[in-house]
Design a protein that fits this description.
By secondary structure, this protein is mainly beta. The chain has no helices and 19 strands.
Amino acid sequence: NVTMDGIPLNDPESQQVFWVDIPDLASSVDNIQVQRGAGTSTNGAGAFGATVNMQTSNPGNEPFARISTSLGSFNTSRKMIAAGSGLLAEKFAFQIRLSDIKSDGYIDRTGSDHQSAFINGAFRTARSFVKANIFLGQEHTEISWWGVPREMLSVNRKYNPAGEYTDENNDVQYYDNESDNYNQNHYQLFYDLKFNNSLSLSTAFHYTSGKGYYEEFKEDRDLSDYGLPDLNIGGTVISQSDLIRRKWMQNGFYGLVYSLKYKNEKLETTFGGGANYYSGDHYGRIIWMKYSGDLRKDHQWYFNNGKKAEVSIFAKADYLFTERLSLFADLQYRFIDYRMKGKDDD
């Protein structure tokens, strides 16, 4: 279970965290907490195996400006610029960071080109704290997930089979845009209120939007695999064709998390929970075919949508009987409704 300021980063469908979608996040993180084993309810409803909690940096009291550049092998570079206003009118502060990361990669045709921006602002009073985060991420990565076959290690350790095909002259060629492309933007609003020395409230609202695709060249593919009939060209029946396809994802994820805490000399209790909703489209389009007939560009051969609603509540308490003896209890209820509808890619 991975969170950023208490907001879940795990993809609601696969539960994975795609770090490539949030480039240079570490430049805006103040601290990271890692906990093995089952986490407590405050770490999130999915904290079964372990938790990683990241806290982003709050705008500081002093104004600043910072430029950072680093270079590495294979034309790797990272450029970052950041600035902050410092505390204005004793209540308000904001900061911004822009990053650009590029690399040619070690394996053939595995370059990357990533950009990100992080903007946040905070407003403080004696009893309340409001913070807003905006994280914008854009990634372009050439495909390298097929790995290097064992028999190629002694020939070319940098060999990449992605996009490989044979042309009319029986020469091996490589498609030049075998790539993964994705934009992911996070918007978060936090509100904390301290009623008194014993009672406090924390709330957070979030929205994440994502859209992108990966593009691949496929050689001699059966037309029937894409729901297409055989073609008759000049009396020749064609059932296979080279093609270029894009598999798309477009999704939105939003919700809220909250907790109410009470603490005195012997008792510390927390009541809270969250409600989240996700809707994601998955679809594939053919942008080019060697033998296309009457097929129009961007032919869509599948489309499906997944919807996931989740509600969770929890209550936990820690009571100190003596300096040596305490009792801890943690109860949680979680409801999930996940539905998927439409054609899959096969």
